[in-house]
Design a protein that fits this description.
By secondary structure, the chain is an alpha/beta fold. It is 15% helix and 30% strand. The radius of gyration is 24 Å and the shape is globular.
């Protein structure tokens, strides 16, 4: 967001003023909320309007161990949602902060009445209604998604101008979010999990066996909404010039190769070169692809760099066979290089030779 071109910002949503840091964070005296971070980051001339819009859900645990969750009906939040819509209409851009809380992403345990798990992966309460009504204003919409889990939001993702997924960022949450929103930091994070389109799509992890993603649903694609390793930047990057030391190695030799990465955009930034491999023929069913190496590389605009990689077959390509021993089987492999698990830009084959008979 170019602050030189903005006069007003609507910051709305139940997580805008949240000071959540997750269930396993060290407690701090002060957590900078997204709202607070934005207010501190913009010039005084820019008006920052705020309203909650709607609640997520109220989860309470009684002394007797029972858990209850209360979701506010839409008719009771009509006025607060409309207030958020009105603020968006009079602002240049809307930043909508939705997601979950530690209590709505809590692990259930085996004691009777102690609840925590969710049966669905959508946004609780009237959050999706809030986002959709703000989208309908026609103003640019940035959704900040905060919470301890992936959320299934395919319809929202299709309509909004930008999506910033944060999980939990700790004490300086608002500072980190503002630095990315206003371009002080060029984002370079990548997803360590896949985001599903719905709970019915699970499992949706990237390393399923070959053919798992060929099935298709009647309602939607079998592909994840956002795949493992996905993440955008304000810059663009080009992968090229793959070179391998040799294409055939023994199980005790290293497979060495490199690839050139170039920043083809207008901003300084980092890209994560992700290296996957595929074992084409094996004695047991193997994943379609597995992440084996990765490197994050910072480049200035126009700058290019050659990135070297080494695959150690005994360490990187071995698996537990039918005899329950770890082994590297000879045969044909593929090395797959890209910027996410579903965006492979370079593919090359290589071979591991069988052991010589004594």
């Amino acid at each position: 967001l170019d602050l030189r071109k903005i006069n007003s910002i609507a910051v709305v949503g139940p997580n805008a003023a949240s000071i959540e840091t997750g269930g396993y964070s060290v407690k701090n005296d002060h957590v900078v909320s997204i709202l607070e971070g934005i207010k501190k980051s913009v010039p005084a001339r820019i008006k920052v309007h705020y309203t909650e819009g709607c609640k997520i859900a109220r989860v309470e645990r009684e002394r007797n161990g029972q858990t209850t969750m209360t979701v506010t009906p839409l008719k009771e939040e009509e006025n607060s949602i409309q207030q958020a819509v009105n603020l968006a209409r009079v602002s240049d851009v809307a930043i909508v902060c939705v997601g979950g809380t530690a209590k709505t992403s809590h692990e259930a345990n085996f004691s009777t009445g102690f609840k925590g798990d969710r049966s669905t992966l959508g946004l609780l309460g009237n959050q999706e209604e809030l986002v959709n009504r703000i989208i309908a204003t026609g103003k640019p919409v940035v959704v900040v998604l905060m919470g301890g889990k992936p959320y299934a939001i395919p319809r929202i993702a299709e309509k909004i101008d930008a999506l910033l997924n944060t999980f939990y960022l700790g004490q300086q949450t608002g500072v980190a979010v503002s630095n990315v929103l206003f371009g002080k930091v060029n984002p370079s994070g990548k997803l360590s999990i896949s985001f599903p389109r719905s709970s019915g799509q699970l499992p949706v992890y990237y390393s399923q066996r070959r053919g798992a993603f060929t099935k298709d649903y009647l309602e939607e694609s079998s592909k994840p909404l956002f795949a493992f390793g996905y993440g955008l930047s304000y810059s663009t990057f080009e992968f090229s010039d793959f070179k391998a030391e040799k294409d055939t190695v023994s199980d005790k030799e290293n497979y060495r190769f490199n690839v050139q990465l170039k920043n083809t955009g207008n901003y300084s930034g980092a890209e994560v070169v992700q290296v996957y491999y595929s074992d084409l023929v094996a004695s047991v069913s193997r994943p379609e692809k597995l992440l084996v190496k990765f490197k994050k590389v910072f480049l200035e605009p126009g700058e290019a760099q050659t990135i070297d990689f080494v695959i150690h077959p005994a360490e990187d390509l071995s698996f537990t066979g039918l005899d329950y021993t770890k082994k590297v089987e000879p045969g044909e492999f593929k090395v797959l290089i890209g910027n996410s698990s579903d965006n492979i830009l370079i593919e090359r084959g290589f071979y591991i030779l069988p052991k010589k008979k004594k």
